[in-house]
Write a structure and sequence with these properties.
Among the domains are: 199 residues, FAD/NAD(P)-binding domain (3-Layer(bba) Sandwich), CATH 3.50.50; 87 residues. Helix content is 41%, strand content 22%. 44% of the residues are buried.
Length: 421
Protein backbone atom coordinates (compact mmCIF):
# COMPACT_ATOMS: atom_id res chain seq x y z
CA UNK A 1 0.00 0.00 0.00
CA UNK A 2 1.48 3.42 -0.93
CA UNK A 3 2.58 5.45 2.10
CA UNK A 4 0.59 8.48 0.93
CA UNK A 5 -2.46 6.48 1.83
CA UNK A 6 -1.43 6.80 5.45
CA UNK A 7 -1.50 10.61 5.49
CA UNK A 8 -4.17 12.13 7.71
CA UNK A 9 -7.25 13.60 6.05
CA UNK A 10 -10.23 15.65 7.24
CA UNK A 11 -12.49 13.70 9.57
CA UNK A 12 -9.82 11.08 10.48
CA UNK A 13 -9.60 9.88 14.08
CA UNK A 14 -6.42 9.60 16.16
CA UNK A 15 -6.74 7.45 19.28
CA UNK A 16 -4.34 8.07 22.16
CA UNK A 17 -4.21 5.34 24.80
CA UNK A 18 -3.27 6.87 28.16
CA UNK A 19 -3.59 10.39 29.53
CA UNK A 20 -0.35 10.79 31.50
CA UNK A 21 1.93 13.68 30.50
CA UNK A 22 2.88 11.96 27.21
CA UNK A 23 -0.70 11.30 26.06
CA UNK A 24 -1.99 14.74 27.08
CA UNK A 25 0.94 16.53 25.43
CA UNK A 26 0.43 14.50 22.25
CA UNK A 27 -3.27 15.43 22.20
CA UNK A 28 -2.59 19.15 22.74
CA UNK A 29 0.11 19.20 20.05
CA UNK A 30 -2.12 17.31 17.59
CA UNK A 31 -4.91 19.84 18.06
CA UNK A 32 -2.45 22.69 17.52
CA UNK A 33 -0.83 21.05 14.47
CA UNK A 34 -4.19 20.21 12.90
CA UNK A 35 -5.39 23.80 13.36
CA UNK A 36 -2.24 25.13 11.69
CA UNK A 37 -2.59 22.74 8.74
CA UNK A 38 -6.33 23.37 8.41
CA UNK A 39 -7.03 19.68 9.15
CA UNK A 40 -10.17 18.64 10.96
CA UNK A 41 -9.08 15.70 13.14
CA UNK A 42 -11.11 13.81 15.72
CA UNK A 43 -8.66 13.33 18.60
CA UNK A 44 -9.75 10.76 21.17
CA UNK A 45 -7.79 10.16 24.38
CA UNK A 46 -8.71 7.16 26.52
CA UNK A 47 -7.58 7.33 30.16
CA UNK A 48 -8.64 4.87 32.83
CA UNK A 49 -7.91 7.06 35.89
CA UNK A 50 -9.82 10.09 37.14
CA UNK A 51 -6.97 12.21 38.46
CA UNK A 52 -9.25 14.87 39.91
CA UNK A 53 -10.68 12.36 42.37
CA UNK A 54 -7.20 11.90 43.93
CA UNK A 55 -7.81 8.18 44.41
CA UNK A 56 -5.52 6.86 41.66
CA UNK A 57 -2.08 8.14 40.79
CA UNK A 58 0.68 7.59 38.28
CA UNK A 59 3.69 6.59 40.39
CA UNK A 60 6.05 9.54 40.58
CA UNK A 61 7.88 11.81 43.00
CA UNK A 62 6.47 14.79 41.14
CA UNK A 63 9.54 16.91 40.51
CA UNK A 64 9.26 19.04 37.37
CA UNK A 65 12.80 19.78 36.22
CA UNK A 66 14.06 22.35 33.74
CA UNK A 67 13.46 22.97 30.93
CA UNK A 68 9.86 21.73 31.46
CA UNK A 69 8.50 25.18 32.28
CA UNK A 70 9.90 26.62 29.04
CA UNK A 71 8.83 23.59 26.98
CA UNK A 72 5.24 24.08 28.18
CA UNK A 73 5.36 27.80 27.47
CA UNK A 74 7.21 27.83 24.17
CA UNK A 75 5.87 24.67 22.54
CA UNK A 76 2.32 24.52 23.95
CA UNK A 77 1.58 28.10 25.04
CA UNK A 78 0.91 26.82 28.59
CA UNK A 79 2.05 28.77 31.65
CA UNK A 80 2.70 26.38 34.53
CA UNK A 81 0.12 27.54 37.13
CA UNK A 82 1.73 28.48 40.44
CA UNK A 83 -1.06 26.89 42.47
CA UNK A 84 0.18 23.48 41.25
CA UNK A 85 3.56 24.00 42.90
CA UNK A 86 3.99 22.74 46.45
CA UNK A 87 7.69 23.57 46.86
CA UNK A 88 10.69 24.83 44.94
CA UNK A 89 13.55 22.32 44.91
CA UNK A 90 16.71 24.31 45.50
CA UNK A 91 19.53 21.84 45.96
CA UNK A 92 20.67 18.26 45.56
CA UNK A 93 22.80 16.42 48.12
CA UNK A 94 24.38 13.10 47.25
CA UNK A 95 25.17 10.47 49.90
CA UNK A 96 27.28 7.34 49.76
CA UNK A 97 27.76 4.95 52.72
CA UNK A 98 29.97 7.37 54.68
CA UNK A 99 30.23 10.57 52.69
CA UNK A 100 27.84 13.41 51.81
CA UNK A 101 28.29 16.00 49.12
CA UNK A 102 26.34 19.16 48.34
CA UNK A 103 26.19 19.23 44.57
CA UNK A 104 27.14 22.54 43.03
CA UNK A 105 26.74 23.48 39.41
CA UNK A 106 25.12 25.73 36.89
CA UNK A 107 21.32 25.77 37.17
CA UNK A 108 19.34 25.86 33.91
CA UNK A 109 16.01 26.92 35.41
CA UNK A 110 13.98 26.05 38.48
CA UNK A 111 12.80 22.64 39.69
CA UNK A 112 9.34 22.42 41.21
CA UNK A 113 7.70 19.77 43.35
CA UNK A 114 4.03 19.19 42.49
CA UNK A 115 1.30 16.70 43.37
CA UNK A 116 1.55 14.40 40.41
CA UNK A 117 -2.22 13.73 40.23
CA UNK A 118 -2.90 17.49 40.13
CA UNK A 119 -0.35 17.94 37.33
CA UNK A 120 -1.85 15.05 35.32
CA UNK A 121 -5.36 16.46 35.89
CA UNK A 122 -4.19 19.88 34.71
CA UNK A 123 -2.56 18.53 31.53
CA UNK A 124 -5.62 16.43 30.73
CA UNK A 125 -7.83 19.49 31.16
CA UNK A 126 -5.57 21.39 28.74
CA UNK A 127 -5.95 18.54 26.23
CA UNK A 128 -9.74 18.73 26.62
CA UNK A 129 -9.76 22.52 26.21
CA UNK A 130 -7.67 22.13 23.05
CA UNK A 131 -10.46 20.04 21.51
CA UNK A 132 -9.67 16.43 22.53
CA UNK A 133 -12.46 13.99 23.37
CA UNK A 134 -11.49 12.51 26.74
CA UNK A 135 -12.94 9.07 27.42
CA UNK A 136 -12.57 7.63 30.92
CA UNK A 137 -12.29 3.92 30.31
CA UNK A 138 -9.76 1.12 30.14
CA UNK A 139 -8.47 -0.05 26.75
CA UNK A 140 -8.75 -3.83 26.64
CA UNK A 141 -7.69 -4.67 23.09
CA UNK A 142 -6.38 -3.34 19.81
CA UNK A 143 -6.45 -4.63 16.24
CA UNK A 144 -4.43 -3.05 13.45
CA UNK A 145 -5.57 -3.36 9.82
CA UNK A 146 -4.15 -1.91 6.59
CA UNK A 147 -6.66 0.92 6.56
CA UNK A 148 -7.60 1.46 10.22
CA UNK A 149 -7.11 0.55 13.86
CA UNK A 150 -9.82 -0.84 16.17
CA UNK A 151 -9.55 -0.01 19.85
CA UNK A 152 -11.63 -1.92 22.36
CA UNK A 153 -12.49 -0.66 25.83
CA UNK A 154 -14.67 -1.83 28.70
CA UNK A 155 -17.34 0.37 27.10
CA UNK A 156 -17.48 1.65 23.53
CA UNK A 157 -15.04 0.66 20.79
CA UNK A 158 -13.24 3.16 18.56
CA UNK A 159 -12.05 3.15 14.93
CA UNK A 160 -9.03 5.31 14.21
CA UNK A 161 -6.39 5.86 11.53
CA UNK A 162 -3.61 5.54 14.10
CA UNK A 163 -3.11 4.49 17.73
CA UNK A 164 -0.69 6.31 20.00
CA UNK A 165 0.54 4.08 22.84
CA UNK A 166 0.93 6.45 25.79
CA UNK A 167 0.12 3.88 28.48
CA UNK A 168 3.44 4.03 30.32
CA UNK A 169 4.64 0.68 31.63
CA UNK A 170 1.18 -0.63 32.52
CA UNK A 171 1.67 -4.41 32.41
CA UNK A 172 -1.73 -5.25 30.91
CA UNK A 173 -1.51 -2.58 28.22
CA UNK A 174 2.02 -3.60 27.24
CA UNK A 175 0.82 -7.23 26.84
CA UNK A 176 -2.18 -6.11 24.73
CA UNK A 177 0.10 -4.14 22.45
CA UNK A 178 2.68 -6.94 22.24
CA UNK A 179 -0.03 -9.36 21.15
CA UNK A 180 -1.36 -7.12 18.39
CA UNK A 181 1.82 -5.49 17.06
CA UNK A 182 5.56 -6.27 16.85
CA UNK A 183 6.04 -3.89 19.85
CA UNK A 184 8.01 -5.25 22.82
CA UNK A 185 7.88 -3.34 26.11
CA UNK A 186 11.10 -1.76 27.42
CA UNK A 187 13.40 -3.20 30.04
CA UNK A 188 12.79 -1.52 33.40
CA UNK A 189 13.81 -1.08 37.03
CA UNK A 190 11.28 -1.62 39.79
CA UNK A 191 10.58 1.21 42.18
CA UNK A 192 8.98 1.52 45.59
CA UNK A 193 7.73 4.81 47.01
CA UNK A 194 6.58 5.53 50.51
CA UNK A 195 5.70 8.76 52.25
CA UNK A 196 6.08 9.98 55.79
CA UNK A 197 4.19 12.82 57.43
CA UNK A 198 6.65 14.18 59.96
CA UNK A 199 4.47 17.06 61.18
CA UNK A 200 4.38 20.78 60.47
CA UNK A 201 7.37 21.77 62.63
CA UNK A 202 9.72 19.24 61.00
CA UNK A 203 8.58 20.21 57.49
CA UNK A 204 9.16 23.90 58.21
CA UNK A 205 12.74 23.23 59.24
CA UNK A 206 13.50 20.90 56.33
CA UNK A 207 15.49 22.58 53.57
CA UNK A 208 14.27 22.23 49.99
CA UNK A 209 16.94 19.73 49.05
CA UNK A 210 16.61 16.37 47.33
CA UNK A 211 18.74 13.87 49.26
CA UNK A 212 19.98 11.28 46.76
CA UNK A 213 21.59 8.04 47.97
CA UNK A 214 24.01 5.69 46.23
CA UNK A 215 24.44 3.05 48.94
CA UNK A 216 26.14 -0.30 48.72
CA UNK A 217 23.47 -2.74 49.70
CA UNK A 218 22.08 -5.50 47.53
CA UNK A 219 19.03 -4.95 45.40
CA UNK A 220 19.29 -1.16 45.44
CA UNK A 221 20.52 1.07 42.59
CA UNK A 222 19.56 4.39 44.11
CA UNK A 223 17.20 6.06 46.54
CA UNK A 224 16.03 9.58 47.30
CA UNK A 225 14.19 11.63 49.86
CA UNK A 226 12.18 14.53 48.46
CA UNK A 227 10.49 17.17 50.62
CA UNK A 228 6.95 18.03 49.51
CA UNK A 229 4.47 20.36 51.24
CA UNK A 230 3.20 18.37 54.23
CA UNK A 231 5.13 15.12 53.76
CA UNK A 232 8.38 13.65 52.50
CA UNK A 233 8.41 11.19 49.61
CA UNK A 234 10.97 8.42 49.70
CA UNK A 235 11.73 6.32 46.65
CA UNK A 236 14.10 3.50 45.84
CA UNK A 237 14.88 1.79 42.54
CA UNK A 238 16.56 -1.44 41.54
CA UNK A 239 15.93 -4.70 39.71
CA UNK A 240 14.56 -6.40 42.81
CA UNK A 241 13.43 -3.67 45.19
CA UNK A 242 10.55 -4.51 47.49
CA UNK A 243 8.93 -3.21 50.67
CA UNK A 244 11.64 -5.18 52.55
CA UNK A 245 14.45 -3.37 50.72
CA UNK A 246 12.63 -0.09 51.45
CA UNK A 247 12.62 -0.93 55.16
CA UNK A 248 16.38 -1.69 55.08
CA UNK A 249 16.90 1.60 53.22
CA UNK A 250 14.89 3.53 55.82
CA UNK A 251 16.82 1.86 58.65
CA UNK A 252 20.25 2.56 57.09
CA UNK A 253 22.40 5.12 58.90
CA UNK A 254 22.71 7.65 56.02
CA UNK A 255 18.91 7.75 55.59
CA UNK A 256 17.97 7.81 59.30
CA UNK A 257 19.55 11.27 59.63
CA UNK A 258 16.83 12.75 57.42
CA UNK A 259 13.84 11.10 59.06
CA UNK A 260 11.90 12.72 61.89
CA UNK A 261 13.11 11.21 65.22
CA UNK A 262 9.64 9.88 66.15
CA UNK A 263 9.30 8.13 62.76
CA UNK A 264 12.72 6.48 62.56
CA UNK A 265 11.59 3.03 63.69
CA UNK A 266 8.22 3.23 62.00
CA UNK A 267 7.24 0.54 59.50
CA UNK A 268 5.42 2.49 56.77
CA UNK A 269 2.07 1.16 55.75
CA UNK A 270 1.69 2.83 52.42
CA UNK A 271 3.98 1.51 49.70
CA UNK A 272 3.47 2.25 46.01
CA UNK A 273 5.16 0.13 43.39
CA UNK A 274 6.16 1.47 40.00
CA UNK A 275 8.68 1.07 37.17
CA UNK A 276 11.31 3.12 35.36
CA UNK A 277 12.16 2.19 31.76
CA UNK A 278 15.90 1.83 31.24
CA UNK A 279 16.03 1.03 27.52
CA UNK A 280 13.87 1.73 24.46
CA UNK A 281 11.03 -0.63 23.59
CA UNK A 282 11.55 -2.82 20.53
CA UNK A 283 9.56 -1.90 17.39
CA UNK A 284 8.08 1.04 19.18
CA UNK A 285 6.49 2.29 15.98
CA UNK A 286 5.04 0.61 12.93
CA UNK A 287 2.27 1.05 10.37
CA UNK A 288 -0.56 2.88 12.15
CA UNK A 289 0.94 2.83 15.65
CA UNK A 290 3.57 4.74 17.59
CA UNK A 291 4.53 4.65 21.26
CA UNK A 292 5.71 7.62 23.31
CA UNK A 293 7.05 8.38 26.80
CA UNK A 294 7.61 5.44 29.14
CA UNK A 295 5.81 3.03 26.79
CA UNK A 296 8.53 3.73 24.21
CA UNK A 297 11.31 3.63 26.83
CA UNK A 298 12.45 6.96 25.40
CA UNK A 299 13.82 8.31 28.63
CA UNK A 300 17.28 8.92 29.98
CA UNK A 301 18.48 5.51 31.15
CA UNK A 302 20.16 6.65 34.37
CA UNK A 303 18.45 9.70 35.80
CA UNK A 304 14.89 10.28 34.66
CA UNK A 305 13.16 13.58 33.85
CA UNK A 306 10.57 11.13 32.58
CA UNK A 307 7.83 13.77 32.49
CA UNK A 308 9.93 15.96 30.19
CA UNK A 309 10.71 13.02 27.88
CA UNK A 310 7.06 11.94 27.76
CA UNK A 311 5.91 15.46 26.86
CA UNK A 312 8.59 15.90 24.21
CA UNK A 313 8.07 12.51 22.56
CA UNK A 314 4.29 13.10 22.64
CA UNK A 315 4.83 16.37 20.81
CA UNK A 316 7.22 14.83 18.26
CA UNK A 317 4.78 12.00 17.52
CA UNK A 318 1.92 14.50 17.07
CA UNK A 319 3.96 16.51 14.56
CA UNK A 320 4.82 13.39 12.64
CA UNK A 321 1.19 12.19 12.52
CA UNK A 322 -0.13 15.57 11.34
CA UNK A 323 2.66 16.46 8.91
CA UNK A 324 4.07 13.18 7.61
CA UNK A 325 1.45 10.52 8.20
CA UNK A 326 1.08 7.31 10.14
CA UNK A 327 3.09 4.78 8.16
CA UNK A 328 6.12 3.02 9.60
CA UNK A 329 8.39 5.02 7.30
CA UNK A 330 6.86 8.31 8.51
CA UNK A 331 7.54 7.30 12.12
CA UNK A 332 11.07 6.30 11.10
CA UNK A 333 11.76 10.01 10.56
CA UNK A 334 10.34 10.74 14.01
CA UNK A 335 12.67 8.17 15.52
CA UNK A 336 15.79 9.13 13.55
CA UNK A 337 15.64 12.91 13.93
CA UNK A 338 13.34 14.12 16.67
CA UNK A 339 14.22 11.46 19.23
CA UNK A 340 17.95 11.67 18.48
CA UNK A 341 18.46 13.56 21.73
CA UNK A 342 17.36 10.41 23.62
CA UNK A 343 18.62 7.64 21.37
CA UNK A 344 22.09 9.14 20.82
CA UNK A 345 22.59 9.41 24.56
CA UNK A 346 21.62 5.82 25.38
CA UNK A 347 25.06 4.19 25.25
CA UNK A 348 26.58 6.98 27.36
CA UNK A 349 23.79 6.77 29.96
CA UNK A 350 24.12 2.99 30.10
CA UNK A 351 27.88 3.35 30.59
CA UNK A 352 27.42 5.78 33.48
CA UNK A 353 24.76 3.58 35.08
CA UNK A 354 27.12 0.62 34.83
CA UNK A 355 29.89 2.62 36.53
CA UNK A 356 27.54 3.83 39.30
CA UNK A 357 26.35 0.27 39.95
CA UNK A 358 29.93 -1.01 40.01
CA UNK A 359 30.84 1.83 42.43
CA UNK A 360 27.99 0.77 44.75
CA UNK A 361 28.78 -2.90 44.49
CA UNK A 362 32.51 -2.53 45.23
CA UNK A 363 31.86 0.08 47.95
CA UNK A 364 33.80 2.70 46.00
CA UNK A 365 31.20 5.50 46.12
CA UNK A 366 32.78 7.21 49.17
CA UNK A 367 35.96 7.71 47.13
CA UNK A 368 33.99 8.92 44.10
CA UNK A 369 32.23 11.61 46.15
CA UNK A 370 35.51 12.57 47.81
CA UNK A 371 37.11 13.15 44.40
CA UNK A 372 34.09 15.28 43.40
CA UNK A 373 34.49 17.38 46.56
CA UNK A 374 38.09 18.19 45.54
CA UNK A 375 37.80 18.42 41.75
CA UNK A 376 35.62 21.14 40.19
CA UNK A 377 35.20 19.39 36.85
CA UNK A 378 34.19 16.12 38.44
CA UNK A 379 31.79 18.01 40.76
CA UNK A 380 30.13 19.48 37.65
CA UNK A 381 29.91 15.95 36.23
CA UNK A 382 28.14 14.64 39.38
CA UNK A 383 25.83 17.69 39.45
CA UNK A 384 24.82 17.22 35.82
CA UNK A 385 24.32 13.46 36.25
CA UNK A 386 21.99 13.93 39.23
CA UNK A 387 20.10 16.95 37.92
CA UNK A 388 20.14 15.61 34.33
CA UNK A 389 20.68 19.15 33.06
CA UNK A 390 23.05 17.97 30.30
CA UNK A 391 23.21 14.95 28.02
CA UNK A 392 25.49 12.15 29.21
CA UNK A 393 27.51 12.56 26.03
CA UNK A 394 28.21 16.20 26.97
CA UNK A 395 28.95 15.25 30.58
CA UNK A 396 31.48 12.60 29.57
CA UNK A 397 33.12 14.86 26.98
CA UNK A 398 33.49 17.69 29.50
CA UNK A 399 34.80 15.42 32.25
CA UNK A 400 37.30 12.97 30.80
CA UNK A 401 40.91 14.07 31.28
CA UNK A 402 44.27 12.51 32.05
CA UNK A 403 44.68 14.24 35.48
CA UNK A 404 41.21 13.04 36.55
CA UNK A 405 41.99 9.53 35.27
CA UNK A 406 45.15 9.61 37.39
CA UNK A 407 43.18 10.65 40.52
CA UNK A 408 40.82 7.72 39.96
CA UNK A 409 43.69 5.30 39.43
CA UNK A 410 45.24 6.36 42.75
CA UNK A 411 41.86 6.11 44.52
CA UNK A 412 41.19 2.63 43.08
CA UNK A 413 44.66 1.40 44.16
CA UNK A 414 44.14 2.79 47.69
CA UNK A 415 40.69 1.21 47.85
CA UNK A 416 42.04 -2.18 46.75
CA UNK A 417 44.82 -1.97 49.35
CA UNK A 418 42.34 -1.03 52.10
CA UNK A 419 40.13 -4.05 51.17
CA UNK A 420 43.22 -6.33 51.30
CA UNK A 421 44.19 -4.98 54.74
C1 LIG B 1 9.05 6.07 41.52
C2 LIG B 1 9.06 7.02 40.36
C3 LIG B 1 9.35 8.36 40.55
C4 LIG B 1 9.40 9.23 39.47
N1 LIG B 1 9.67 10.56 39.70
C5 LIG B 1 9.74 11.41 38.65
C6 LIG B 1 9.96 12.80 38.87
O1 LIG B 1 10.05 13.27 40.01
N2 LIG B 1 10.04 13.62 37.79
C7 LIG B 1 9.93 13.14 36.51
O2 LIG B 1 10.04 13.93 35.55
N3 LIG B 1 9.68 11.83 36.27
C8 LIG B 1 9.57 10.96 37.31
N4 LIG B 1 9.27 9.64 37.08
C9 LIG B 1 9.06 9.19 35.71
C10 LIG B 1 7.67 9.63 35.21
O3 LIG B 1 6.69 9.30 36.17
C11 LIG B 1 7.35 8.95 33.88
O4 LIG B 1 8.47 8.95 33.04
C12 LIG B 1 6.20 9.67 33.17
O5 LIG B 1 5.05 9.66 33.96
C13 LIG B 1 5.89 8.99 31.85
O6 LIG B 1 4.74 9.57 31.30
P1 LIG B 1 3.83 8.75 30.28
O7 LIG B 1 2.75 9.67 29.87
O8 LIG B 1 4.67 8.11 29.25
O9 LIG B 1 3.23 7.53 31.14
P2 LIG B 1 2.39 7.53 32.48
O10 LIG B 1 2.60 8.75 33.26
O11 LIG B 1 2.67 6.22 33.12
O12 LIG B 1 0.87 7.57 31.99
C14 LIG B 1 0.28 6.47 31.38
C15 LIG B 1 -1.23 6.64 31.51
O13 LIG B 1 -1.87 5.62 30.74
C16 LIG B 1 -2.99 5.16 31.46
N5 LIG B 1 -3.26 3.80 30.99
C17 LIG B 1 -2.44 2.72 31.04
N6 LIG B 1 -3.03 1.66 30.48
C18 LIG B 1 -4.25 2.07 30.07
C19 LIG B 1 -5.34 1.42 29.43
N7 LIG B 1 -5.28 0.12 29.07
N8 LIG B 1 -6.46 2.12 29.18
C20 LIG B 1 -6.55 3.45 29.53
N9 LIG B 1 -5.55 4.12 30.13
C21 LIG B 1 -4.41 3.43 30.39
C22 LIG B 1 -2.55 5.20 32.91
O14 LIG B 1 -3.66 5.26 33.78
C23 LIG B 1 -1.71 6.47 32.94
O15 LIG B 1 -2.45 7.60 33.31
C24 LIG B 1 9.18 8.75 38.15
C25 LIG B 1 8.85 7.41 37.96
C26 LIG B 1 8.77 6.54 39.05
C27 LIG B 1 8.41 5.11 38.81
Amino acid sequence: MPDDFKKMANGDTVCIIGGGPGGSACAIALNQEAAQLGLNLDIVLIEQKKFTEHRQYNQCIGVLSPPLESILKEEFGINLPFDLIVREIKKYRLHSDHFSLDLEGEEHGKSWAVHRASFDAYMLEQAKNAGTRIIHNRVTGIEIFDDEVMIFTDGDNYRAKVAVAAFGLDDGSCRIFEQSTPYKAPDFLNTVITKLEPGEEFMKKMDSTIQAFLLSFPGLEFGAITPKKDHISINIAGRKVSSDVMLQFLRSEPVQRFLPPHKRREKPLNYFRGKFPIAPAMNYYGDRYVSIGDAAGLIRPFKGKGINSAILTGMFAARCIARQGVSKSAFETFYKWDCKVFTDDLPYGKGLRFLANAGNRFKFMDQVLKIASEDKIFMACMFNCVTAHKTYKEIIRETLSIPLGYKFLVAVCRHLLSIKD
